[in-house]
């Protein structure tokens, strides 16, 4: 059986106290899946499918939700699967499960099989709360620096086989990155196919749909959100978006990059984690 959230915003309202601790493992894994679907994905397309079989959750890509223009090789799709799997791991450990994973090639796609075993040990609550509190911030950042110990901790978290984290700061670096982003914005937003794909996932601010991006998430107010499609289609949106991103980058104190040695589906999943 496949699971997908039914009501918009309802999936964020998870109560740990409702975990069915005295029920069958299938019911417990179904509850844990509530955390998986809160993972981030490009345009909030939610490109995943989950199935439960005894003590296993099988994670596979939903190719009906691919971004054929902006993610032609499905790299972002598999990164999103990795994000969902990490949420599953955090939730599983909180509720006393250990988790093993296996990558399986099936019909030209990579499937991830997750096996769960009860061990009775729980991790701390802040991690599981962070899943529900996570959001994408497209607003200006505060002009303050982070402690060096925190930056080093971030690097260490990302230091695993084939992966590393690079943190850059400084005015010259900021200028170079801003220049690259400006060029990228002009290329993307002058591409008709990219704009059409983007529009398929933009929602007005009163949307009842469970996927896509409400316009307020990119700073568009209620009334204007009903005209977002017109603005993207007929206004010089490439210049508008480029100016906006240039301003946001000017307030960004750090740029964090996840680096990988390999370029394959399994690596992309690990990047997402």
TrEMBL record:
GO terms for molecular function: oxidoreductase activity. InterPro entries: Nitroreductase-like. Gene3D superfamilies: NADH Oxidase, putative nitroreductase (tm1586), domain 2. This is Nitroreductase domain-containing protein. It comes from Candidatus Woykebacteria bacterium RIFCSPLOWO2_01_FULL_41_12. The lineage of its organism: Bacteria, Candidatus Woykeibacteriota.
